[in-house]
């Protein structure tokens, strides 16, 4: 019998003029709900975000590394890394640790000089895929929130609060609870 581990649902959606990243906020250890307020979407650069699924410590370590690299590049070059460059850098970090891998699945999305982009990245950094819609773990904020809401209904390891981030060419914006209250009756 093969044991299947489930938990965390994150979604990335490419929209006209931007992207949407969404996640739920439950952290589990087996059948135990460890936290109902876990953060799973992180701002990497001004207009780039990353969703994480997997081991929390590994994810947070990667987030800190890539945030620092993005800041250093901006300081040295006077311009931000592209979304693809951030994804490639993360891929290299993950590939370098393939014998003792970070146990994560990542979605990287944002808007750069080439427009809105979303990439998914496997735990070993070997497969970078540019996508229009992607999810990890077990067109608009409505689509992303609906996917998360449905995952929360069907998976006890996903749940509690829905977190949504919109990124356009102008800003990185966390959709607050009142904004989600407007969306939720629609789904």
Structure description:
- There is one protein chain.
- The protein has 187 residues and is of the alpha+beta class.
- The protein has one domain (9-186): 4-Layer Sandwich (Glutamine Phosphoribosylpyrophosphate, subunit 1, domain 1), CATH 3.60.20.
- Helices cover 30% and strands 36% of the residues.
- It has helices spanning 56-77, 83-96, 141-154, 177-183; strands at residues 9-15, 18-24, 27-29, 32-35, 41-45, 48-54, 104-112, 115-121, 128-130, 133-137, 162-168, 172-175.
- The strands form three sheets. The protein has a five-stranded antiparallel sheet.
What is the compact description of this entry?
The protein is of the alpha+beta class and 187 residues long. It is built from four helices and twelve strands.
Shape: globular
Mean pLDDT: 82
CATH architecture: 4-Layer Sandwich
Detail the poorly predicted runs: 1-6
Strand content: 35-45%
Q: What's the main sheet like?
A: 5 strands, antiparallel
- How many separate domains make up the residues? 1
State the secondary-structure class. alpha+beta
Helix content: 25-40%
- Distance N terminus to C terminus? 37 Å
Helix run count: 4
Helix/strand layout:
Blueprint: E1 9-15, E2 18-24, E3 27-29, E4 32-35, E5 41-45, E6 48-54, H1 56-77, H2 83-96, E7 104-112, E8 115-121, E9 128-130, E10 133-137, H3 141-154, E11 162-168, E12 172-175, H4 177-183
Antiparallel strand pairs: 1-2, 1-10, 2-11, 3-4, 5-6, 6-7, 7-8, 8-9, 11-12
